[in-house]
Amino acid sequence: MFPYLQHNNMPPVTVHPRPTSSSSNDSSRNDATTETGPQPIPERPRKRRGPTQGFQTARIVKVTQKKLEVIIEKEDMRATGPNAPRFANEIGAAVRQYAPLNKIRWKDVTDAEKSPMYSRLENMFVLDYDKRHWIKEVIENDMPIRFKEFRYELHEFYETLLDLPMAERKAKKHDQVLNQEYWDFLCDYWESEAFKNKSKRNATNRSKLTHGHCSGSRSFLNTQTMGLEKINGDLMTKNEDDDRFSTWMKCIRYESMNEKEKNRRYRISYNRAGTYSQIKIKKHRQKDTHEEISGSIAKSEQERSAKV
């Protein structure tokens, strides 16, 4: 049948057609599909950002072999500068790792229990308590906030277990709670009447807040400081556009630039004010208008003096 496949010592090749009658198998497959219906595709759990553990900061300190600088002014009582977000994250990581969760209030935490938290921060950042004694006060004011936020995250996880009996809730400990005794204490505390009344009162007060914090781990003070540094020219580079700055800010910046920088700024402002020549014409027109006003004022003063 296929002579090019035959050989002298080989038998002739015969091709058998594929059977086409498979109606019984197809019908059974279709019946099974119609009975059960299409199987839904299982959804993958959404990948979310996990809690900050300080690995990146520790890696930077290990590679550079020096601690990170953090700016904390006495009049601000808040960390500012490029390392301020890392400093805030490290405080939260230290609280999550070392804070005792069997204490209802942060005031009940002893100095011995706070010591590992301070040691972790001192290993990462330059904290000179002797010259800047207010830094410890700043850390002490920030730790209760991180403690409260951590307890809130744990309570949110606990609310997903309310359909289970208490024994199973205590068995499903949160991953960030390192001690089972802490989790048992929190479960009993969240079921107390004192906590429920306090939670209801706090939820009512929180509902009155119209605008929440929306700058992430960067504080409002740090955002304001960075904005002032941009206005003063400390963080400005030649690649920054002028769209982010107002007209009066451009005038201040033009005064401190050399002639080459001025020409570059004129080329950038082509789309807004026209060509370089048109800008010069506008400036001449403003100058002429100013001279006309000055001349009219001088003329009116002369007429007034002549009448007198």
Automatic annotation (TrEMBL):
Polar residues: compositionally biased ranges? 1-11
- Do you know which InterPro entries this protein is assigned to? Probable_transposase_24
- Stretch list, region Disordered: 1-57, 279-308
Ranges of Low complexity compositional bias?
A: 17-33
Against PANTHER family, the record matches this protein to: NO APICAL MERISTEM-ASSOCIATED C-TERMINAL DOMAIN-CONTAINING PROTEIN, OS12G0282400 PROTEIN-RELATED
Mind telling me what this protein is named? Uncharacterized protein
Where does this protein come from, organism-wise?
Answer: Forsythia ovata
The root-end lineage is: Eukaryota, Viridiplantae, Streptophyta, Embryophyta, Tracheophyta
